[in-house]
Amino acid sequence: MDIRHRMAKRAAAYFAAGDIVNLGIGVPSLCNNYAPPGVMFHTENGLIGVGPLAEGLQRVESFSNANGMRFVPMPGASVFDSAESFAIVRSGRLAATVLGGLQVSEKGDLANWARPGKMVGMGGAMDLVNGARKVIVTMELTAKGAPKILKACTYPLTGAACVDHIVTEQCVIDVTPEGLVLREVLDGVTPEEIQRQVEPTLVVADDLAIMAA
Amino acid sequence: MDIRHRMAKRAAAYFAAGDIVNLGIGVPSLCNNYAPPGVMFHTENGLIGVGPLAEGLQRVESFSNANGMRFVPMPGASVFDSAESFAIVRSGRLAATVLGGLQVSEKGDLANWARPGKMVGMGGAMDLVNGARKVIVTMELTAKGAPKILKACTYPLTGAACVDHIVTEQCVIDVTPEGLVLREVLDGVTPEEIQRQVEPTLVVADDLAIMAA
Amino acid sequence: MSSKLRTKDEIVALFADGQTIVVGGFANHGVPDALIDCVLDSGARHLTLLSNDTGDADLTIGRLVHAGRVDKVVASHIGMNTETVALVASGKIEVTLVPQGSLAERMRCGGAGLGGVLTKTGLGTVAEKGKTIVEVDGERWLLEPALRGDVGLVRARSADPIGNLTYRGTCRNFNPLVARAAAVTVVEADMLVELDEIEGDSVVTPGVYVDMILAK
Amino acid sequence: MSSKLRTKDEIVALFADGQTIVVGGFANHGVPDALIDCVLDSGARHLTLLSNDTGDADLTIGRLVHAGRVDKVVASHIGMNTETVALVASGKIEVTLVPQGSLAERMRCGGAGLGGVLTKTGLGTVAEKGKTIVEVDGERWLLEPALRGDVGLVRARSADPIGNLTYRGTCRNFNPLVARAAAVTVVEADMLVELDEIEGDSVVTPGVYVDMILAK
């Protein structure tokens, strides 16, 4: 499995039937391929029950996700305006959100919407990381060899102390009150190899598991 | 015409086609008999387009006004929840509200929801006097001979400086920046007789008119 | 995605002494009467009631007052219910009166992850008492903080198995706000319909807000 | 009760230099394109645009940017529109970025007679900048003040002559909020229907918010 799908599949393992989940663009959007039955997807432009991408006559303007892609609504879909959409988000009704990340700090701060001097908008990301019960970041462990998991973020924050799980192509890391806990590594990758690629000191879980390739 | 209907009819003369109006209980509720065509009525429990009282099979729980009376909805009626209902009220979308009054001050303060020591609730009155573009109070000029139009209200206020027009059984008084202006009197009633029944000094309008009996 | 339909016994088990119960309805209309039966059956006491009014004496919401279950009331009006008025007068029930529009917004905040709203309603009146005044660009506003409860009781017209709801006429009133403003939201519907029988655009309360639906 | 249908010329006459225009739509979907034609035809310049985004370059809302009519933008995201990004970078357009949920609530406040809301969104980020922090029971909240405009442009699915509106699917998005958040609200509807053809319970935006409807 290519690394994008590997990360999406692992992130989707956090979902359970009955969950309402919001997926960001890029790798997160692939999670719907791996979600267990009974998960429903929320799109912040105003619908719960996002189904597969639409084809032919199904491609109507009225069912487009936050990324502008046309989709088929699922049975039981509900429609609402943007205020209601974010009432759902902020009030903790979303079981999870999956987002990409530029940087995550050891306290779980997330920077994913802007590089310094290039701020084109946070969209709904600040509300999502503030409201969703579980915030899952999918990202590669490093960018051009430089760590993305840092003691403190240097880019503008999306939210402070908001991340629960970091899913990378090599490992899974949880943000806990005791610090960053290494939960899973790819077969053949050592905790030491992961540690070299992140800035803060990782706690290695007693029950460190193998991440599905 | 009996004095209740006389007051209601005069208050309804402030309405124009296209207006959305909220009527309080008692005399105000009679205004719908005298409104010009094209006025629509708002009930704060969540509907615009309140029609006549319902009879027989028309009497369904789902169309009840704020006073619990069953009514027939008019063509073009719209339904909404209580938050939307008061968004409409507060944002100035109601052309007018007509309410009863216990006391009105010379600055247009209104007391109509409680006597001292007997506060059973303001309901929607505080929102209505704050939001409606025109606040019309229908009340008798005095209570057991004591004036109800005072220099300052002694009862708990519904709103400060909110009243535009006071319609009584004997006269019509406007609240203006220059003070209370006597606009109309019943045929045969003199401004002096009205003045004796109110506490603040009235300004008599240059074009003082005769109020329809 | 499993059904949210629950038996009366499962719903009765939700209630406990000292809870805040948020209830839909307005002047005896659109009240979730079968869910009020559940509260009565539970035996729960010392409740705080958060609702527009307390109905009439021993009618609709008023049955909770009549049965002596209520210690506190937060409402916009209690005058219709002579029992509530008498219990307040004798100090047996504590009441907080909130302007109706502010009550609706406060419930909405409680269910929307918001801390409160700024309103003009009540400025210069007793509704200001104990409240914070916030200035925005030199203009004075009254801060009305969010309100939430432990269990919300909602009366809907129709409900599908995942809790998408519609309402009918003025029976809507506070119900969609109550559906959001509690830790657990329970629904009583006039009609139980199949999944997808309520068209998405017609859903008034999305099922995401609903935890349990009373089975018939 | 007379019809709110108006000719294109009557609507074009609404716009003037320096106005704040509030526009519905999300990422080119559910945008009132015929009303944007009206703004373009009016020649109005130095506009402030209040909308979720500015569409794509020279598409939907982006046409106002392309035509050089916009001085300021208040939005949650401008990244799709390369022209907006370039004009912001060169200082020709001033942009204020607002988290999407806060933008929606701020418009709602502007149209609901409220001064602002308290949210957690943006605490600890640049979204705090210049904003007031309000404490409620020791908890910190960000005060997001109300936003309003001069003219609101709404795209609806159907409209009756008094402006009761429905929407379709995700074309609803910000449109019902825009319908409330301006001094004058103008609607473009895919379908114009007769009075009472939209059942009262199905009305999403009550006609009371609507001033004019573009005639076909």
From TrEMBL, chains C, D:
InterPro entries: 3-oxoacid_CoA-transf_A, CoA_trans_fam_I, CoA_transf_BS, NagB/RpiA_transferase-like. Keywords: Transferase. Pfam families: CoA_trans. It comes from the Bacteria. Belongs to the 3-oxoacid CoA-transferase subunit A family. NCBIfam families: pcaI_scoA_fam. This is 3-oxoacid CoA-transferase subunit A.
